[in-house]
Amino acid sequence: MGRSSTPGEGTRPRVRHAGQVGWDDDLYTDGPAAGRDGRGAGADRERPGHGGRRRGTSRRRGKRGKRRILRWVAYVLALVILGTGAAGYLWYQHLNSNLRKGHRSAGNSAAKKTAPNAAGQTPLNILLIGSDSRNSKENLKLGGSKASVGAKPLADVQMLLHVSADRKNASVVSIPRDTRVDIPKCVDPDTDHEYQATNALINESLGRGGPGCTLDTWEQLTGVYIDHWVMVDFAGVVAMADAVGGADVCVKDNVYDIPKPNVPGGSYLKLTEGTHKIKGKKALQWLRTRHAFESDIGRAKAQHMYLNSVIRELKNQNAFTDTGRLMDLAETATKSLQVSEEIGSVKKLFDLGMQLKNVPMDKINMLTMPRIADPQDDNHVLPKPVAADKLWALLRDDESLDPTDRKKSGTKNKSGTKDKSPTVAAPDALDLTVVNGTAADGQVATGGRAADVRDILRSKGFTKATASTSPGSALTTAVTYPKDSGAQGKSDALSIAEALSLPTSAVKVSADVDTLTLTVGSDWRTGATYPKQAAGDDDPLEGTEAVNGSEKDACMDVYWPYRF
After folding, report:
1. Beta-carbon neighbour count of residue 202 at 10 Å?
2. How much is the pTM?
């Protein structure tokens, strides 16, 4: 700051008036203030007839001096406060400038936000995306070959974080990267290129319109409204893992995930049996390990264990309340993460983090979507009929996924009042298209199936039902209604499902249909009555590799070829 400009500290400033703020001779003399002729105040008191006036003047000057001291202190304090505020503002702007932002949706967001509960609270849904992009030196160094540079990124990690409206429980649901789904039409926000709807692996959605397309795909599949997305790449994972300071993981055997004959690739994770605190590159290796944990399903479970451990670590560090710790994390997070634009500020990210602060660890549950093998390719999977739909319904209804406190859906919504449904339309007033989607299981489609089910509907009063000549694809029979038809569209779709004895989970909203559409799936290839599911086969939590946040000692199994 150079030499001090504060009176009395170093060189004193030249001033025009002795009464200037911050200036007073009393501050710089050992005794009373000097008189105008240079003599001390005592000399004035000795002059006849002037003692009282001079004494009063000295007292008044003393009072003025004290006031000037106070003004000087206030002035300095104001400068400090303003300087601190300016520095804080610049730091805040610096953090904001670190953030990379993108559109929440790629143009086909279809789900409707859940209605508030009685306290006015709504659930929070955030899509967490891990990109495999090698389009930077940092990411290429951490994994992949030079041949992958320039390729469209894949969303190899996809997790939906659901925090309940009352913030008392949280769930994380992963969808394996090799899950075949319907990807809606998406528009790339950077190039304005329009990608048509397709049926493909869900990790391809990232390259068809960015994270917003992945979000749209999830919403179309699950019917869950997703508030935001957050994406991280390899380098971001390493940086965040270092910033957290490490997280505990455990393996039941020594593990070394390296390429094997006829099984190329590997994360090169090498750990001995037991618990280890990992961070940096080692954390990335853990999160990428697939072969040693037997499959993508095993990898998802390992990722859940790591995420639980990170949350525990942050809670132990008081990171949600320690300002200094938060600042350290903020610098790294804002450089490492890409977020949807509506949460593109440090304050909004901070507020999001606070949503998890009070959720008990034993009320955080993580699992992987129930699934079946894809009949078209054994290396891929499909959402398990009925069970997956029931899981999505639990999330839509803001139900806990914890088996100990799951509640059965009743006739009341979260606000504690009875649902107010729109007027149910007469069956003969509904325009309805029936599509034959029975080939989704890899078998030849049942001939004339759309017309057969159309006739069943007409016999039940849906006289405007028509059969489409275009084939569809659906493992499970579904009734979809247009996004812009709102509550009335859902009510109409539910009436069709009820007439055919379909589960309510069969009703879905879609931005890709213009009218009510019944797609007859592979689960209803023949017959006039929708088949009942086998008992227990529709459990949404069965076989989902669930991990609870309180499980501190959970350890990963190691596939035998990767033990040492």
Report:
1. 25
2. 0.72
